[in-house]
Design brief:
By secondary structure, the chain is of the alpha+beta class. The chain is built from 9 helices and 6 strands; from the N terminus they run αααβββαααααββαβ. The two termini are about 15 Å apart.
């Protein structure tokens, strides 16, 4: 919408300004203190590439993802994100608390970005175990992302997949933003050798899992999973085959 209005009204705003405006709408209208990832991807997406984004500086680089023989499959729990917005804000507050605790000992620390696992163990764990768990997940995930980019540079998509499973485990057990339906879908595909990675996506508490799966096995997985999911949850399973495409553009 921002891109369309920018074109229609000839306001000449650059892409970074549009990204910040869209994020501000989330903060002030929707009331979600979100980061900038979704908005950045919507504007700056590039076909067949992931974006390695520094959310603090907005510096970024494209990392090619070659999916030869594989597809991105989204499995929809059909569970509403009823807790996602409020719990997102809670997690942000908990992570800020970790930074406050460390800052009392190390005044140069102002962001989880600058925190190490050793700092969390030394300063946060003795004070607040829950806050420690939340912050630990974020610090570990930052490390996982950098390692995953190296995997892709080495054309090792299977190593990326293993990190997706590890991310979901952290989101479920440490960050606690998953739900039984999401966990069921990830656990179900874990046993399938043709699914090389899976995790929840989005704000959590429902929505979709994202899976990297051999293209030839999509139909058989869905045929097996649909009745099993219905039996387990009482809900229908729907799915989408997704691709890495360019961001918003003028047609």
């Amino acid at each position: 919408m921002a891109l369309a209005l920018n074109e229609l009204l000839q306001t000449g705003l650059d892409k970074n300004t549009l990204i910040k405006m869209a994020q501000k709408a989330e903060h002030e209208y929707a009331g979600v203190q979100c980061g900038v990832m979704d908005q950045f991807a919507s504007v700056m997406g590039k076909k067949n590439n992931l974006i390695k984004l520094d959310c603090r500086t907005h510096e970024y680089e494209y990392v090619p993802l070659q999916l030869d023989g594989y597809k991105i499959l989204l499995l929809n729990t059909n569970v509403k994100h009823s807790l996602a917005n409020s719990e997102y804000n809670n997690r942000r507050s908990e992570c800020n608390k970790a930074v406050e605790i460390i800052n009392k000992h190390l005044p140069q620390i102002h962001s989880l970005r600058d925190v190490t696992i050793e700092m969390l163990a030394k300063y946060v764990l003795p004070v607040n175990e829950l806050v420690y768990k939340r912050a630990m997940y974020v610090v570990q995930e930052n490390e996982r992302l950098l390692a995953a980019c190296n995997d892709l540079q080495n054309d090792d998509i299977h190593a990326l997949g293993k990190k997706m499973f590890a991310t979901h485990e952290g989101l479920s057990n440490a960050y606690e933003v998953s739900c039984k339906e999401l966990d069921y879908l990830v656990e179900f595909v874990k046993t399938k050798p043709y699914v090389i990675g899976a995790r929840m996506m989005g704000g959590g508490f429902g929505g979709c899992t994202i899976n990297i799966i051999k293209e030839e096995n999509i139909d058989s997985l869905i045929q097996e999973l649909e009745p099993a999911y219905k039996k387990e949850t009482g809900l229908p399973l729907t799915y989408y085959i997704a691709g890495l495409e360019d961001g918003a553009c003028i047609i």
